Amino acid sequence: MIVDVHAHCWPPGSFTDEFIADARRMRASAVDLLTPYDRYVEHLPPGEDVTTIVFGGKARLSGIWVNDADVADYVAQAPDRMIGFLSVDPTQPGWEDELREGHERLGLRGIKLLPMYADFYPQDERLDPLWRYATRHQLPVLLHTGTTFVAKAPIDCTLPRHLDAVARRFPEVTMILAHLGHPYESETVAVIRKHPRLFADVSALVYRPWQLFHSLMAVHEYNVWDKLLLGTDYPVTTVQETVAGLRKLTGVNIAGFSLPAEQIERLIYRDSLALLGLSDVHAARPLEKVTT
Ligand SMILES: [Zn+2]
After folding, report:
1. Which of 76, 82, 165, 182 matches a 20 to 30 Å C-alpha distance to 37?
2. What's the predicted TM-score (pTM) here?
3. CA–centroid distance, residue 144 to ligand 1 (Å)
4. Is the torsion defined by CA of 128, 121, 159, 24 positive or negative?
5. In whole angstroms, what is the distance from residue 225 CA to residue 56 CA?
6. Mean pLDDT for the chain?
7. How far is the CA of 33 from the centre of ligand 1 (A)?
8. What CATH architecture does domain 2-283 belong to?
9. Exposed/middle/buried for 73, CB within 10 Å: 0-12, 13-18, 19+?
10. CA of 8 to the centre of ligand 1 (A)
């Protein structure tokens, strides 16, 4: 089984025009910001059984807002294939109500945060109720870490080192640092190595293969392969593109340095649901394979 821990549900109207204009800097070629699930399924590797963690995102400053009810509806298209996470923007009134609503009424199973896009620090004491709630209900928290194309989002809020400050105070919370914190991957490696409940995903990195090769060499040298999870950042990349891009890196040899193919395969097939405490979702599903 493959678990994609990072895919988006972005219904029409999720972004302001300013965000859409900035998003032209996302990849070298334009990205279609719509997220139909049938297109996601079309780009699964043939014959693979894939489970996907899906979320929208809320960040008023940057012009991103997806209601959690829309995420729950999206997941309802294939509830045995998808797990939904709620989002909050803690700079906005009502976020604590949205946290409870998303979890308790909509049945969403984790939390997505966008500190830089919304302009807050994850270790700010005003977020303590969120970290306490995540601890109490064992909700994994996935945070965007790493840079952005959005002009007004403050990069300082996104640095992986801030999660060290959170993890020292809330060590039981499971966190995923998205995108390996690019281009601060070494900082991410330093943070996930010291905290047992902290992981990083490799979403939206395969289309910068030179940088990803070097980042994974740092992962190798610090021996944190087991803390890496597969993710796509769909619609930015697909499962097929991500898996193929990772495998291609095993053919690289620079002055005798190369990535161990067996670690890349373990990353692709890692049981992230077990690591995130979400295995019960998988256990409930039927055994038949996805047909693509
Ligand atoms: Zn994303």
Report:
1. 182
2. 0.93
3. 7
4. positive
5. 27
6. 93
7. 11
8. Alpha-Beta Barrel (3.20)
9. middle
10. 6
